[in-house]
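pasting for the record
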Amino acid sequence: MDLDVFVSAHRAEWDRLDALLRRRRRLTGPEVDELVALYQRTATHLSLIRSSAPDPQLTGRLSQLVARARGAVTGTRRASWRDVTRFLTHGFPAAVYRSRHWWVPTALLSALVAALLGWWIGTHPDVQATIAAPSELRELTRPGGEYESYYSSNPAASFAAQVWTNNAQAAAICLVLGIFLGLPVIWILLLNMLNLGIGFGLMTSAGRLDTFLGLVLPHGLLELTAVFVAAGTGLRLGWTLIDPGPRTRRTALAEEGRAALGMAIGLALVLFVAGAIEGFVTPSGLPTWARITIGVVAELAFLTYVYVLGGRAARTGETGDIDAAERSATVPTAA
C-alpha cells in the first residue's frame, strides 16, 4: 500500500467524520446516517493501515477518531447489576469451562507431584532432617503443635481475610505471568506443591494423617481448585503466544487476556469462600468428618457450577470475553 496515496484519497472522509463529531447541535437524520457510514469506513481504513502500512502517528489519530465515533454511535454504556449477573451466570463459568483442558490436567499432575513429594519425605528420615531438626519437627507435628495452631493463630475474620488476600494474589500472578510462556506459573505451582508435600509427609510420618486431612481438605479442595484454574489459564495464555491458531497473535492474546482478567475477578470470589472456610470451619470444633464434608460440598458445588452453567453458556458461544460491540473494530484483511 502507498500510504501517501491512501491518505490523500481518504483524508476528506476523516475530516468530515471529525467535523460531525464536533457538532454541538443535534445531528439531522441524514447527518447521523453519514456519521455511521463514515465511522464504518474509517474503522476499515484503520484496520488496513495497521496490517499493511503501520504508521504510529496516523494509527493513533485514526484510533482516537474511531473511538470517538463508536462512542457517538453506540452511546455511553454503564455497567449494571444485569452485567454482574450475566458475568456470574455466563461469562465466568464459561471461561472456566473452556479452560478445563488446561486446568484439569494441571490439577491432576500437581496433585501427583505433591503426593510423590509427601511419600518421599514421609518415608525418608534423612530428607526430614534437611527440613528441620528432630525437636523442631516434633514441635511442628505434635497434637496442638505449630501445624495445628497455625489455623487458629489469629481471629477467624482476620485470618480469613489474610488467607483470601494471599491466595487471590497468587491466582492473579498465575494469570498475569502466564504470558511469559507459562514458566513463572510452573514455578509457583511447584512451590505450592512442595509446601503441601512437606506437610503431608511430615504429618504422615508422625502418624497423624487423619489430622492433616481434617486441616487441609475443608478449605483446600476449593482453594487448590481455584489455584489450578488460574495456573491452567495462565499456561493457556502462554501457549496462545506460541500458537494463536487461526487468529492473529495480537487478536488471540487480546481475547484470551480479557477472558483471563474476568477470571481473576471470578476466582477472587471463589477464593473468598475458601478463605471463609479456612478461617471459620477449619479451626472450629466440628468433627473431622463434618469439616471435610463442608469442603467436599463446596468443591462439588463449584464443579457443578462450572460444568452445568459454564458448559451450557459455552455451548451457546459464550467465551468469557467482553461483548463484540465493546471490542475494537476490526475487519478481515488479506495476507
